[in-house]
From TrEMBL:
Protein name: Divergent AAA domain protein
UniProt-annotated stretches for the region Disordered: 450-477
Biased composition (Polar residues): 465-477
Protein species of origin: Phascolarctobacterium succinatutens CAG:287
Organism domain of life: Bacteria
Length: 543
């Protein structure tokens, strides 16, 4: 709250602007009104000046009442100002040492009212950056117009594309995950096309035929197909854990050695950043409890970043992990006030189709509780609270999640694992397999490439070739029992399992998966059917 009785202690900033108004309303007033309304709101002080040392001084205005009347007449004139977002209480007159000033409190405009522009010209739209107003570029105006639509941009049916834009292996991975989380779901037996229609990944265009939706393209498409609709689409994961190399690990959507879509990026990134959180070994019945409130917060933060990105924007999505923090940046601004987003209870996602697809596999909050949950998870830890900011020109949102050091996030007793295994977190951490350095996992399991190979980059190659993913084959006997229990649970729900699927749900190498399956055969729990490449495993009691 501005201390109106001590105005001279303030300086101009991105939420405060002082203007002299000795001879009438200044012409620059309207650009500042547009800028504040299109950004995060702010306060305009008429009759106040700023000196060379950036100190404010009250000069006063002549005939404040007449100026207020003139102000309302102009701001309600749609040929001058596109929309008036003010109420009567937003314009007040105050007196200081016999001098009157006019205080105008401009709220952040609702997304469906943006852009606020001048003189009937969309390109006379302004935004605020630091202490100044700047005229919006065509791209920024287009972004505001997209957000103004009642229908989110990812619900668009792309009539110029066919269903061959989808990576079938990504769809297979998604369906296996959904089966594990929602066994017996009514969509489980559907063919892929019908299933994709139900989840909103395809829709009917004016020609009556099925085509990908923008959400489906982003979630399941090949990167080279995605950029046909989203020319600036770019997903970038960067990891720097020491000072000796530029990147300890890096992969980008445009490298060509993986699908490059959002679904696969999510799990590849999560399996990297989850290593920042140590997990004590514990079991809940037959399922390992390897989830904490911080794990949930990391998943929520990553999902929020991908779901709320403006993929038509210029800056893409960048996730960067270092020893002290995890930073997530996405193109676009918040569609609601930042304080409202942090406080929770209000949900206005940019891509509602993506939310539906993620929610079907128990990822992402739908009720506006995502950011509060993230901040709550950091409460009581040994490090600083998260920091989230909106940045302008270009528009982007940046979330910084502080961590103490690699693998040393401070857990409190309140954050110790306590989760029902059927809620999906167990499978979540096991989405991608770690490939064997001698035997790469094909098809469904090939979500994480061999980290000994440099990942191609359109900008630069990854320099470090010796960083490897920890070998998940090093297990303890209790973990082996748990792995067998997970395999048994999967077979009970799905009747059969393959070595590929076992490797995926256990997060082990194919060789380790085959060893576990062989042990279960010897123990008489399961039996092998088929031969060569069609080998499957069923319960011993199955005929």
């Amino acid at each position: 709250m501005l201390d109106f009785f001590n105005i001279e202690k303030y300086k101009e900033n991105n939420r405060l602007e002082a203007k002299a108004a000795a001879v009438g309303l200044p012409k620059s007033l309207w650009a500042t009104y547009s800028a504040f309304a299109n950004t995060n709101g702010g306060i305009i002080l008429l009759g106040v000046t700023e000196d060379a040392q950036h100190q404010l001084h009250v000069e006063g205005v002549n005939d404040a009442d007449t100026l207020v009347i003139d102000f309302w007449n102009i701001i309600n004139n749609q040929s001058k100002i596109s929309i008036n977002v003010l109420n009567d209480k937003d314009v007040i007159v105050r007196e200081f040492d016999g001098k009157k000033i006019i205080i105008i409190s401009v709220p952040r405009a609702q997304r469906y009212d943006k852009p606020i522009y001048l003189d009937g010209n969309l390109f006379s739209s302004y935004k605020r950056n630091g202490e100044g107003d700047y005229r919006c570029t065509k791209e920024v105006i287009q972004a505001m117009l997209r957000d103004a639509s009642p229908k989110t941009q990812d619900m668009l049916v792309l009539g110029n594309m066919n269903l061959d834009v989808f990576d079938k292996d990504t769809i297979k991975r998604y369906r296996i995950r959904m089966q594990g989380i929602r066994p017996g779901h009514v969509w489980e037996a559907l063919e892929d096309v019908d299933f994709l229609y139900r989840i909103g990944a395809v829709g009917r265009d004016a020609d009556g035929k099925l085509h990908p939706t923008a959400a489906g393209l982003l979630m399941f498409g090949y990167e080279y197909e995605i950029v046909r609709e989203y020319p600036h689409y770019f997903l970038d994961y960067r990891e720097k854990l020491d000072d000796d190399t530029r990147w300890s690990d890096r992969f980008v959507s445009s490298s060509g050695d993986w699908s490059g879509n959002i679904y696969d990026f999510y799990f590849r990134v999560y399996n990297r950043i989850a290593q920042s959180v140590k997990v004590p070994f514990a079991l809940d019945g037959i399922s390992r409890i390897d989830d904490t409130e911080l794990h949930k917060a990391l998943r929520e933060a990553l999902a929020n970043t991908l779901i709320n990105a403006d993929y038509y924007g210029n800056t893409g999505v960048v996730i960067e992990r270092n020893i002290t923090s995890i930073t997530m940046t996405n193109a676009g601004t918040f569609r609601i006030d930042l304080d409202e987003a942090i406080n929770g209870g209000i949900s206005d996602p940019r891509n509602s189709g993506l939310i539906k697809m993620f929610s079907l596999i128990n990822i992402g909050e739908r009720a506006g509780s995502g950011l509060p949950m993230i901040f709550k998870a950091w409460t009581g830890t040994d490090f600083a609270m998260p920091d989230i900011t909106e940045k302008e020109n270009p528009d982007r949102v940046c979330l910084i999640l502080p961590v103490d050091s690699l693998g040393e996030v401070g857990l409190t007793s309140a954050q110790c694992p306590n989760k029902n295994a059927n809620e999906g977190s167990d499978v979540l951490i096991n989405e991608s397999t770690v490939p064997d350095t001698k035997e790469t996992v094909p098809d469904i399991e090939q979500t994480v490439p061999d980290t000994k190979q440099a990942v191609p980059d359109t900008e630069q190659a990854v320099p470090d070739t010796e960083q490897t993913v920890p070998d998940s084959e090093q297990t303890v006997p209790e973990e082996s029992k748990e792995q067998k229990a997970l395999i048994l649970s999967y077979i009970k729900h799905n009747e059969i399992i393959t070595a590929k699927i076992a490797a995926t749900i256990l997060n082990v190498k194919p060789r380790r998966a085959r060893t576990i399956l062989r042990d279960m055969q010897i123990e008489g729990i399961i039996k092998r059917v088929g031969a060569a490449r069609s080998i499957k495993y069923v319960l011993q009691t199955e005929k």
